Amino acid sequence: MDLLPNPAPLVSKLRNTLVRYHSIGDGEWRVAKKTKDAIVWRKPSEEFSGYLYKAQGVVEDATNRIVDHIRPGPYRLEWDSLMTSMDIMETFEENCCVMRYTTAGLLWNVIAPREFVDFSYTTSYEAGLLTCGISLDYGEVRPNFVRGFNHPCGWFCVPLKDSPSHSLLTGYIQTELRGMLPQSAVDNAMSSTLVNFYSDLKKALR
Q1: Taking the CB of residue 200, how many other CB atoms lie within 10 A of it?
Q2: Which residue, among 196, 198, 178, 187, has the nearest Cα to 41 in the 3D structure?
Q3: What is the pLDDT of residue 108?
């Protein structure tokens, strides 16, 4: 397993990568799933053989409060039905840490529980916030879990100009679940998980 990286260059690279994803034109995306809470698009990832997913929806709350529920911290475990445990392994500064978390099985356990170790960073973006992360090969893999890998991921949260009490939440997710899995099952699980993320988050913020 690798040693912990120097956070400064990782922070810069991660932010630049997410901002680049955020500027990808609409024509490159294909709709994967649509509900009243969110729309999910996808395009082939540049990082691995799966997809980069884009999810977007309007959430009725202030930007800071929404991001506090998404980034590593006590709120996330309370409402995110997919996450089963979370530990902060290292803290570099207030908005920068390494966390280890586990996820529940999906599709009647066709996709078994996964473990991730992610570098996480939260910073300002325009009038709102960006919270982003990437997986690290760090720490021993716990028994009964497959170690998954998040390529650069993140959530942009900005207040709506004409309705500051509402925020536009846009996520970019590219998760390599690893293990022997049918790609169709992974694609179906990812789209469903992302729309459920929005509905669960909205319930938590009420």
Answers
A1: 16
A2: 187
A3: 61
At 151-204, the pLDDT tens digits run 999 999 999 999 989 999 999 999 998 887 777 778 888 999 999 999 999 999
For tokens 């293990």, the residue is 179
- For CA atoms 175, 16, 155, 145, give the dihedral sign: positive
CB atoms within 10 A of CB 61: 20
The rounded distance, in Å, linking the Cα atoms of 43 and 27 is 10
> What is the reported pLDDT for 11?
93
Token pair listed for 15: 């932010």
Name the pLDDT band for 73 (thresholds 50, 70, 90).
confident
CB atoms within 10 A of CB 162: 6
CA distance 6 to 29: 33
Nearest alpha carbon to residue 123 among 4, 6, 13: 13
Pairing of strands 51-59, 83-93: unpaired
Q: Is the pLDDT of residue 142 over 90?
A: no
Pairing mode of beta strands 51-59, 163-173: antiparallel
Tokens 């459920």 sit on residue: 196
What domains appear along the chain, each with residue ranges and CATH number? 7-12+29-205 (3.30.530.20)
Better-predicted residue by pLDDT, 183 or 82:
82
Please state, in angstroms and rounded to a whole number, the distance separating the CA atoms of residues 181 and 49.
Answer: 13
The sign of the CA dihedral 205, 191, 87, 157 is: negative
Q: What is the pTM of this model?
A: 0.94
